[in-house]
Amino acid sequence: KAKGIGFVDCGVSGGVWGLENGYGLMCGGDAAHVEMVMPIFDALRPEGPRDEGFVHAGEVGSGHYVKMVHNGIEYGLMQAYAEGFELLLAKDTVKDVPGSFKAWTRGTVVRSWLLDLMVKALEEDHDLGQIRGYVNDSGEGRWTVEEGIAHAVPMPVITASLFARFSSRQDDSPQMKAVAALRNQFGGHAVTKAGESGVLTDH
Q1: Phi, psi of 12 (to 5 degrees)
Q2: Catalytic status, residue 59
Q3: Nearest 5 degrees, angle CA 24-CA 27-CA 33?
Q4: Looking at residue 19, what is its pLDDT?
Q5: Whole-angstrom Cα distance, residue 175 to residue 168?
Q6: Is 10 in a helix, a strand, or coil?
Q7: Residue partners of 19: CB distance under 8 A and separation at least 6
Q8: With 0-12 CB in 10 A as exposed, 13-18 as middle and 19+ as buried, what is 23?
Q9: Stated pTM of the model
Q10: What is residue 55's three-state secondary structure?
Q11: Which residue is catalytic, options 20, 35, 74, 83?
């Protein structure tokens, strides 16, 4: 600062399609410094009004904070689509799961770019049978949950979606083994032996 050097941070969203569609930009810094680099942001952000696809969120660091929350929300949205996908697959009267998702892309309240990408994935692999159900997390969901705890902000959806990713990495969940054992102990419910396939036996 003594040498007249400023700092502007900018969180970016747009993924691999940003080159075609433009990037959502979330920046933080002194207003004069942000204005100085606006030609760069204008070149990168989506076409249209400046406040659609760009925000000067506040002080230095606030841009990446907004991006972190964006990614936490993304975790929750993806988990909701995923749970709906599994339920549609499980229902024997539903014969066209990819078509069901595609029908939601026009006029419904759940339409989004993530939904469009889900449709694209299902068009390439109608039951996602070519993909293993193992999901990493790159950190933003964890940080969002940690910030929720720090500020006493309840975040049940984002937290649950993060934990669902942890579950996806377990070939045989120790937690679910414990639940199965307890159900067997108190109610005599059947347990599935290691190596056997599970069958729905109770209500």
Answers
A1: -130, 135
A2: no
A3: 135
A4: 85
A5: 13
A6: strand
A7: none
A8: buried
A9: 0.85
A10: strand
A11: 74
Distance of CA 5 to the CA centre of its chain: 36
CA-to-CA distance for 45 and 27, rounded, in angstroms? 12
Task: Give Cβ neighbours of residue 5 (< 8 Å, ≥ 6 apart).
Answer: none
Q: Which two tokens stand for residue 100?
A: 């069901």
CA 81, 86, 90: angle at the middle one, nearest 5?
145
**Between the ranges 113-122, 164-173, 182-191, where is the mean pLDDT highest?**
113-122
8: number of Cβ within 10 Å: 18
pLDDT of residue 115: 94
Q: Is 95 in a helix, a strand, or coil?
A: coil
List pLDDT tens digits, range 36-76. 999 999 999 988 998 899 999 999 999 999 999 999 999 99
The Cα 73–Cα 84 span in angstroms is 17
Does the annotation mark 3 as catalytic?
no
Tell me the residue type at 7: F
Within 10 A of 44 (CB to CB), how many other CB atoms are there?
A: 18
Q: What is the pLDDT at residue 201? A: 46
Looking at the DSSP assignment, which residues form a beta bridge with residue 13? Answer: 24
- In the predicted structure, residue 116 carries a pLDDT above the cut 90: yes
Question: Which residues of the chain form beta strands (DSSP E)?
Answer: 9-13, 24-28, 54-58
Distance from CA of residue 130 to its chain's centroid? 21
Q: Specify the higher pLDDT residue, 191 or 122.
A: 122
Catalytic residue among 67, 95, 146, 193: 67
